[in-house]
């Protein structure tokens, strides 16, 4: 891997860690004002990525991922500093927390498509899978450490101190982005940002062979896994008499399984015949959810979530690079923004249904239904002729 890429991945760990700690602190402080305020802050953080993500992809295609990331990191630094000053001089009122949440969410809507495309500017098609696996590991590591570290820091340095810490992490990322110049470019003829250009990006993705199947699979797996883990595990733990600590350990299992699997792909690279792991991933996910659905003890449930995490990474480590390779260079960021959109939208739709399903049918039935839903992603992959024939890095073979 190029030296600049390794430096950016290292900076990503620090930046994502700061962002994760700040996100935890915002939710924690908001929960002190009531569950409705906490729910509003969480929603306002995610909703802009759904509403503005396609625009963010068009902007990244127009000005380049690196420029957009520099602007977004600069905006996040200013937001963190402003939040620290306001909280320090005034108080963390609900309105302040909501303004911070929607501001951070809006900036993230523009930065995520650019960051998703950035690895493609460093490596050849054959190495893209391994490169994206390393980026995924960095993000997973940061997301693993951020909540417990945030819980410790919010009691020590409070929200304003955490905001300053996030600004420092952003400053380090800004320095790295200023120093690192990727060796590759995606297009020499950028298109102006317009509704027509955004629509063209969506229509091109829909018409690109293999891309609709990938988008459908990602939506299915995201809808099956994320609500089941975030909401299903706590509800199952309460139903089966497990403690909150045991529920936390169970949830950590899918992170541990994902990290171990991601480390393998980062070291050894991904498969060239991508349809095989893209099919196996949802099957492994379904097995993990099935174990979790029937687990009589929390230790067996932990085994289930570990299998689940491995299945998710087997799937995403091959789906995401393949989708990026299918994208026309001039539309890479717009394709990426559409991928982010289909990841988030099913979660917003399914989350309210989880509580209802558990109350009527029980947690085990809900998790079993999620396993069945995950299996349909494997059917979609095997039914697509383009994905069955796709070979990663074929252009260089």
List keywords for this structure.
Growth Hormone, Chain: A, 397 residues, 14 helices, mainly alpha, single chain, 0% strand, 83% helix
Walkthrough of the structure:
- This protein is mostly helical.
- It has two domains: 3-193, MFS general substrate transporter like domains (Growth Hormone, Chain: A, Up-down Bundle), CATH 1.20.1250; 200-396, Growth Hormone, Chain: A.
- The chain is built from 14 helices and no strands.
- Helix 8 packs parallel to helix 12.
- The model has no long low-confidence stretch (mean pLDDT 89).
CA-atom Rg in angstroms: 21 Å
Number of helices: 14
Number of strands: 0
CATH superfamily of the largest domain: MFS general substrate transporter like domains
CATH fold description of the largest domain: Growth Hormone, Chain: A
What's the CATH class of the largest domain, please? Mainly Alpha
Strand content: under 5%
Q: What's the order of the H and E elements? A: HHHHHHHHHHHHHH
- Given helix and strand content, the structural type is mainly alpha
Mean pLDDT: 89
